[in-house]
Amino acid sequence: MGAHCESGTVTSLLNHAGLIITEPMVFGIASGIFFGYFHKHKSFTFPTFIVRNRPGDMRKNIQKRLGVKFQTFSFREEQKGIEKLDELLNRGIPTASQVDFYYMDYVPSWERAHVNVHFMVVIGKEGQEYIVSDSYFPKPERLNEESLRRGRFAGGNMSPKGFLFYPSFVPSEIDLRKPIIKGIDKACFNMLKLPVPFIGIKGIRLFAKRVVDWPKFARDTEHLSHEVMKINILLEDQGTGGAGFRFMYATFLQQAAEIVKNEALKELSAELMTIGDGWREISLFAARIGKNRDLGPDKLRELSDLILDRAEVEELFFKKLKKVLNRKLLCLPYRAMS
Amino acid sequence: MKEKEGFVDCPEQQMILYVEKEDGQFGPMQTGSYITKNYIDDYFEKRNNLINKLKEQINRGEISPVKLFMILEDLTPKELSARTKIPVRKIKRHLLPVHFEKLSEELQRRYATVFNITVEQLQKAVPSFEPMNAELAKP
User: What is the pTM of this model?
Assistant: First the structure.
């Protein structure tokens, strides 16, 4: 199992290829930590937010920063996509597939949503069923051909287009120091400096400001309750490792501190764990007020204040993290062996 | 978050949570979903109420089954258009019963495929796992 589909999938493929690396390290090097708030978007029926970088960027950043090569495939014709996957499986190559999560029949119905950016590894085929290794499930699951076809070729925003990938080259030795530094640098840039008003710390502030307007978008109280409770799901349940990825990123920083031998990073990892506890309070608060239908202006303002507080602490945190980078990091080379 | 605070007994939905272990190291633990454990009945109650409301609207001739499934599956007209390859302006017409009734078999099939239901379920506005509860909703 992994905490998140893309980082979990990339990690398991790299481990299988002989590169021993943890999921937090993949997530951190890939600059996965993020925030974006969408008050209105043509693909979403209700305001929402994201807590990781753009889907696909984890794989691309790992490729760029670790020197790993991923063979990738997209398809215009479904049949070619199906044949390619079968060919790779026949060659014994476990292959990652991008799918719409809704069509994964092994997922309980209350968890399913039309999300075109779910990643899992197809590890085999028996008859008309594929065997898949999904980060969100403890053991391999079976999926019939038709369901996988629908998932791989669903249309819509960020449609998968049958996307497949597997690592075709992994360096025998990798010095993780520079990738760690680059990963942290980009994460700090995304959170502090991206000139987009709904991204990063600005995005958290916008979320805090706009959440009090959510009743205007709801059909009725039960709809508003559902959407407010989704805050809990987006932060905890949709595959984040807890607290909107903050716990997993804290783990990355602790591991990075060991590798680059930097005590300041270790302190910051503990600080981010505490920041994550604050996000967890927001998750529990949202679930509680949603369940109780206690969604009047006072409670939404209270929720807004909790979120705004996260913006303040994260801004301070990422500025401190950036400062640590700007100092010369004392370290010894650390090589991950493959 | 400490490891002992992270444990939730919910075998129906497991996940990985990163926590502080007893030795101070941060690492993964397998645990259950807090919201599923504590609030799944509330989710099903809301969903069943929504299905009943939408069906009443269908019976009153206000909306079509396409609208019911579009709302249940949280799709905008633009998303549904991109997935069915039916233009948005036609999707909006199909949300009304008078236009839904004239749908060709091909267009019904496209909607049913995207909604992951049969054409018969589309015609009769029958969602999968209805009424919903945790037992029926398991794969």
Answer: 0.93
